[in-house]
Amino acid sequence: MTGVLIRDCNVGGKAGYSVYCEGGVVATVAEGDIEVPDGTEVVEANGGSLHPGFIDSHCHPFEYGRLKRSVDLRGATNMTGVRLRLVAGVQRARPGEWVSGMGWDQETFPGREMPTRKDIDDVSPGNPVVLTRVCGHIALVNSRGIEALGLAAINGAEYERDQNGALTGIVKEGALEAVYEKLPRSAERSAADLQSVEAEAARLGLTTLHCIISPDGYREELEALASLQAAGDLSLRYRVYIPPEALDHLGTPGLKARLAGRVRVNGVKIYADGSLGARTAALREPYSDDPSNSGILRHTDEELQELVERVDARGMQAVIHAIGDRAVEQAEEAIGRVAGTKNPRRHRIEHASLVPKDLRGKMAKHSIRTTVQPLFITSDVWAVDRLGEERSLDLYPLKSLLKEGIVASGGSDSPVESLSPILGMWAAMTRGVTESTEKLTLEQALALYTSSAESNGFDEVAGGISEGSPATLTLLDSDTSGMHPALFRKAGVLATIVEGNVVHSYGAA
Ligand SMILES: [Zn+2]
Questions:
Q1: Is the pLDDT of residue 107 over 80?
Q2: Whole-prediction pTM value?
Q3: Separation of CA 28 and ligand 1 centre (Å)
Q4: What angle do helix axes 357-365 and 325-339 make, rounded to 10 degrees?
């Protein structure tokens, strides 16, 4: 393996440095020019800042890859837009084949009403259709789909019905898995999906993804990771979180050995509740804009505790999706029982969106970690409607979490938000508003996507760039030290280096 020289970069706020990497580690950090062996790959930084490699500590790359080749409904601001895009998807499909799409958001529609199957039936008469909301927690199924799944006979709060008792086509939470199981899948398709996302992630400066595996597609997704790894075709590092139903599958002969290298299975992802957008996040008090509804807990307290204990007993990390304060509380209880005060398995709460002071204190008490998604702050413009003014003060309280000493790392939840860590840091610093006591400094925002994410994923915490630190690095096009937060979103990625390999460089094909 040839070495890599990054010339004229800014390291830790100091300009004019040369950084030479060899054998997967940083070998030399020196001011000015340095001598390097012949054949060294040279990256000209022109004064750009060099950072430890950016990490997305919560994303769904396989889902994003699937979205890239299905009907993309993000940005549609009315049902006409949804219908038009669906028509194109239906035309590409064979008769009777499932058509899937993702990304609609009724909050952006006039009237903000939930769509029903009647809104899409006439444009998809010959195909079953499932269109997932932007949050991933509810979906709209058309009449052909309801028929194909035999849903008419099933009762339950997860299948929405109108005043006449007829299914509206809206399916929620746990019931979605049965729908997704019908979609065609293969390891080859999943591998192609991952590769398209990987290329985009590298361009955005990401070196490592904390990859959430889908409950309905874990066999194909783990096989895709294993075959890409075995073929030497992975350019990024993966810290993998499997669904509980995949725990036994991990024992498949040879699987762990084929994954070893760029992939490490860290833990198990458990869902405690849904999303605020879909009003399925579990709240202590009802929704301000739906007083009869407090959301949905996916598990009883006992079930969740048992799941966490199972994961903990295997020596793995439990990461619990919890958005509403009731769900965060339930997750804390479950983790608290096994974590003591030090939480050696680094169990995390994913999102921890609505987290009032008492719950922040409890997280700190048990050293419970979290991953936060700063772009939710700028996207959830309707949050005050859902929660009211007062509760909204405890929504995404990033600075308050850090003040408690809680280790928080950043993630995109892609495909919910853009994969870009730079946009994530920008949102953490600006929150899209002028006044807020919860804005982070640049240093804190960077830590979300570097040192804290390393720590949250059991990676060696580089704590900066020095001789002997891992050669997993992100080079920006500008000197970002002291840069105004609003400008930071414009920063470009010059090069992405993973374990000493340049996996993206600006201008390269
Ligand atoms: Zn997620």
A1: yes
A2: 0.89
A3: 38
A4: 20
